[in-house]
Design a protein that fits this description.
Length: 231
């Protein structure tokens, strides 16, 4: 089904403009995630820059609402019923990307709870590796999505699941650490937000390999070449 949706995006179909907006959402969310990571790991940001970054999240939200409006308008016209499955897929994808923007914003806000630079220890080194993994996945996701690259999507899904497991283990380490309350809260929340960003990226990647009714759920038996992408 994703291949058909991408073909529509590249055509003169009214859904093509929605594809353009979705691409913008993905790019804005990635940029916000990268900048949030810089802030979280200790780079000072002046109030003007922070306001600009928060406005970026607002722009993501506006794009989501615009796509929703476009979908509703498109489906209101007679004869567009065949587009329903593709619109359902798009509505699911834009929600995931919008949530990424929210979690990136939350990641920046966590710095205020910590009230200082992050600790320099093994826990933060592990979180830095998780951050790098999430950012690498994000860097690859747009190309994998637009090319409907099933093999690469499967690899990235496996990587994302591994990162999620590492996040769970790290939270337990933080709970047993000698961090004070503020540092522990910031570390645990930062870990959680990276897990959720990675989780929503995983949801986008599942659209490459999973049928619509199992979107967001990874099942290896549906990744074989014999299984039609729209089954």
């Amino acid at each position: 089904m994703l291949r058909e949706l991408l073909a529509i995006f590249r055509s003169g179909d009214p859904l093509a403009s929605m594809g353009s907006d979705f691409t913008k959402m993905l790019a804005l969310s990635r940029d916000l995630t990268l900048k949030a990571g810089v802030v979280y790991f200790g780079s000072e940001v002046n109030p003007e820059e922070r306001t600009r970054l928060f406005k970026q999240d607002v722009a993501i939200n506006k794009l989501e609402r615009r796509i929703r409006k476009q979908v509703i308008k498109h489906l209101s016209f007679p004869g567009n019923q065949p587009s329903v499955p593709y619109c359902l897929l798009l509505m699911s994808l834009v929600k995931d990307v919008e949530r990424i923007g929210d979690y990136a914003k939350n990641l920046m806000e966590t710095v205020d709870l910590r009230g200082g630079p992050p600790p320099s220890d093994e826990i933060m080194a592990e979180l830095a590796e998780i951050r790098a993994g999430v950012e690498e996945t994000f860097a690859a996701t747009p190309d994998v999505f637009t090319k409907s690259d099933r093999d690469r999507a499967v690899d990235l899904i496996d990587d994302s699941k591994s990162l999620a497991g590492r996040c769970d283990t790290l939270v337990r380490r933080i709970a047993k650490s000698d961090y004070d309350a503020r540092a522990a809260t910031a570390a645990a929340l930062g870990t959680r937000y990276y897990k959720r960003i990675g989780g929503h990226l995983l949801n986008v990647l599942t659209s490459v390999v999973m049928p619509l009714h199992k979107l967001d759920y990874y099942d290896e038996k549906h990744t074989t070449p014999e299984m039609p992408s729209g089954a």
